[in-house]
Amino acid sequence: MTNATVHPLYDTYNRAALRFERGEGVWLITENGDRYLDFAAGIAVNSLGHGHPHLLKALNDQAEKLWHISNVYEIPGQDKLAQRLTENTFADKVFFTNSGAEALECAIKTARRYHYVNGHPERFRIITFEGAFHGRTLATIAAGGQEKYLEGFGPKVEGFDQVPFGDDAALNAAITDETAAILLEPIQGEGGLRPFSEDMLRNLRRICDEKGLLLILDEVQSGVGRTGKLFAHEWVGIQPDIMAVAKGIGGGFPLGACLATAEAAKGMTAGTHGTTYGGNPLAMAVGNAVLDVILEDGFIDNINTVSLMLKQGFASLTDRYPDVISEIRGKGLLIGLKCVVPNTDLLQALRDEQLLSVGAGANVLRLLPPLTLTEDEARVALQKIEAAVAKISAENKDKAL
Ligand SMILES: *Cc1c(COP(=O)(O)O)cnc(C)c1O
Q1: Which residue segment(s) compose the domain that 241 sits in?
Q2: Can you give the pTM of this predicted structure?
Q3: What atom of ligand 1 comes closest to residue 140's alpha carbon?
Q4: Res 1 pLDDT > 90
Q5: How many A from CA of 135 to the centre of ligand 1?
Q6: Ligand 1, CB cutoff 6 Å, lining residues
Q7: Candidates 184, 221, 242, 358: which one to mutate for ligand 1, based on the most atoms within 8 Å of Cβ?
Q8: Cβ 370 vs Cβ 49: under 8 Å
Q9: Residue 139: pLDDT above 80?
Q10: Vertex 134: Cα angle to 131 and 136 (nearest 5)
């Protein structure tokens, strides 16, 4: 029996009344033919924009050959993508997943198993930071520690200790004989583009080395070129022991990965972990194609060039409209505008100008365009953003009169 008045989807999203039919590069086109500049990119997912010819070809070619095969067989695309990820990072080992949360689950299990096989099963606790976001599974909401995501879902998964951001005393006090690892996003994404400073990251690496803890980085949002380096931690030059990756690596195809050093991954022996879909041939074809483009000479340089141009434009807006935005945050094309007005007002004003953006904590508005954004497209974006900001500022003045 059905009830016609009840919408058949779960009500977990407050969806905007926008229906996109297709995408072309940095543009999304609605069923009515309206063109929106996509500065959300599926929340840092469509790293090469929409309909990128190299991704289309890779996916189509693979689709004609083989979609899925179990992980009990060899999957050459996995060997290739893992080889390239390890060649270009600190890591020696890779496990492929379908999502960021699953990459984090693998990271958490890897850290716990490391201490277990070292003879310390009591070392299973993981320290995380206030403002973190690590996903929506039961373990990752416990890791993220945000009450709004934990409420009503029963006892919080045991083994996560959260400390305030930048509070060294609290961090030191939280480390016990049961601590396995420290987990953090080098730049907090959902938390409002709050970066760990170079000093903080070096300090965390040092503490982990001294106490035998593993350093786990969540680069699900900040990775794969997003900040103007292949991974955000490269800006500081520290190396994690384990890293979770997803979003941009799949360019829109569900794909995540947990990367680790051989030492950190030594407990993850045959039978300890698994996935049905993770690393399937379609995902591997697309992941390899994404890397073909991102690792091309000059591709990441261009991210930094376009980022500088956008940031100069935003700096000028903060000067001229201090009643609307107060600060520019982030790196590369992971940019946040700290708002004076509610960030939802700016999000809506930008949507009226047909530019899509994403909210974040701390009243920040996130701008996450495809990494293929050109300077010409960035100029169009700046015009739209200026129009929206100027409109809000004018409304503010009208209200004050
Ligand atoms: C999006 C995100 C996740 C969760 O990824 P899903 O693919 O939604 O499971 C985890 N960590 C960070 C930093 C993210 O931005």
Answers
A1: 66-294
A2: 0.97
A3: 10
A4: no
A5: 5
A6: 99-101, 104, 133-135, 185, 189, 218, 220-221, 246-247
A7: 221
A8: yes
A9: yes
A10: 110
What CATH number has the domain bearing residue 105?
Answer: 3.40.640.10
Helices and strands per DSSP (H, E), number in the chain: 12, 17
CA nearest ligand 1 atom 15, residue: 221
Q: Does 340 lie in the same domain as 206?
A: no
In single-letter form, the type of residue at position 284 comes to M
Q: Express each pLDDT in 217-273 by its tens digit.
A: 999 999 999 999 999 999 999 999 999 999 999 999 999 999 999 999 999 999 999
Residue 71: DSSP 8-state: T
How much distance in Å is there from the Cα of 224 to the middle of ligand 1?
14
Helices (H), 295-363: 299-320, 343-352
- Distance (angstroms) between ligand 1 centre and the Cα of 312 equals 29
Q: Would 12 be classed as within a structural domain?
A: no
Nearest in space to 312 (alpha carbons), one of 294, 292, 335 = 335
Helix (H) or strand (E) holding 198: helix 198-211
Same domain, 99 and 187: yes
In tens, the pLDDT along 308-360 reads 999 999 999 999 999 999 999 999 999 999 999 999 999 999 999 999 999 99
Q: How confident is the model at residue 401 (pLDDT cuts 50, 70, 90)?
A: confident
From ligand 1's centre to the CA of 139, what distance in Å? Answer: 13
- Determine the atom of ligand 1 nearest the C-alpha atom of 256: 7
pLDDT band at residue 29 under the 50/70/90 scheme: very high
Give me ligand 1 centre to Cα 96, in Å: 15
Task: Compute, in angstroms, the gap from residue 390 CA to the centroid of ligand 1.
Answer: 33
If asked whether residues 284 and 308 sit together in one domain, one would say no
Is it the case that residue 4 has pLDDT exceeding 80? no
pLDDT value at 3 more than 90: no
Atom of ligand 1 nearest to the CA of 136: 9
In ligand 1, the atom with minimum distance to the C-alpha of 44 is 15
Long-range contacts, stretch 375-379, CB < 8 angstroms, 24+ apart = 375/305, 375/306, 375/309, 377/25, 377/26, 377/37, 378/306, 378/309, 378/310, 378/313, 379/309
CA of 266 to the centre of ligand 1 (A): 25
**Total number of domains constituting the chain:** 2
